[in-house]
Amino acid sequence: MNIGYATLLMLALAAAASVQAAEDRPAEKLVRERCQKCHGFDGESSEPEFPKLAGQNVDYMTRQMANFKTGLRKSTRMKEKVEDLSGGEMRALAEYFSTKTLVPERSAKTELVDAGRRLYFSGHFEHGVTACTTCHGPLGRGAIYLPRLAGQNVKYLVGQLHAFRDYSRTSPNMVMHTVVENISDAEIDAVAEFLSIME
Ligand code: HEC
Ligand code: HEC
Asked: How far is the CA of 39 from the centre of ligand 1 (A)?
């Protein structure tokens, strides 16, 4: 009886150890099984509320997944998708999506685009809104931990800018909260419209 129990225990421990040592699952398989539904197989995103991941920066995406996992950035939908992913799997997924070609939006509201372009390159000094180009770059492609914004969905961008302003998107990097502290709703709509058609 005792021996049987000890044997079972050893088997259980061996099984647990083999799970720990298991190899990372291939990124493409994970994409099909659990990302494709919302972000698309090529990161093109299936609904305007979901961010496009195609062409997004690897380090930025890896960090965001880690933030969803720890709860630093709150999203119930994302947390359950990354909860059991290893660091290597998250990086491989980020690498997978970053190599895909992003297709920008085409149908921007032209009357907003000009106002959005001005805000992007010049900011709104009197309201303390720093020019976006300072950090996200003249092509809107970001770098390393700075996200690419060019070609992103309007609805997603608008949602995130509101979320930075009201602190519902939390980030250990405080800089975006400061940038958008005094931005108006109209400026958010305009800059998002401009960004969505940026190549
Ligand atoms: C049920 C829909 C859904 C699925 C499935 C899903 N995501 Fe997401 N993802 C979202 C939403 C919604 C957001 C935006 C969260 C927010 O509001 O901050 C997001 C955000 C992200 C971001 C941050 C993008 C950015 O620009 O900041 C990354 C990276 C990401 N998802 C990767 C993945 C990966 C990898 C998978 C598969 C393992 C996956 N997602 C599966 C809905 C989903
Ligand atoms: C001082 C540097 C800086 C400036 C200026 C700046 N940003 Fe950012 N932005 C960042 C950083 C850093 C992040 C990533 C924050 C994080 O890790 O959560 C970010 C994230 C974002 C995101 C989220 C993107 C995504 O994929 O989820 C949007 C949208 C954004 N910025 C728009 C803007 C706009 C519009 C402006 C100009 C009004 C602007 N930013 C100015 C540094 C900056």
From this structure: 7
Find out whether 113 and 195 touch, Cβ atoms under 8 Å: no
- C-alpha span between 33 and 27 (Å, rounded): 10
Whole-number Å distance between alpha carbons of 69 and 60: 14
What pLDDT does 2 receive? 53
* Nearest atom of ligand 2 to the alpha carbon of 129: 38
With cut-offs at 50, 70 and 90, classify the pLDDT of residue 18. Answer: very low
Counting Cβ atoms within 10 Å, is residue 177 exposed (0-12), middle (13-18) or buried (19+)?
Answer: middle
For 40, other C-beta atoms within 10 Å of its C-beta total 19
Rounded to whole angstroms, the Cα distance separating 111 from 135 reads 25
Residues 41 and 171: their CA atoms lie apart, in Å, by 27
With a 6 Å cutoff on the Cβ, whether 136 touches ligand 1 is: no
**CB-neighbour burial class of residue 118 (10 A; exposed 0-12, middle 13-18, buried 19+):** middle
CB 165 within 8 A of CB 180: yes
Is the C-beta atom of 132 inside 6 A of ligand 2? yes
Find the mean pLDDT for residues 19-36: 87
Among protein residues, the one with the nearest Cα to ligand 2's atom 38 is 132
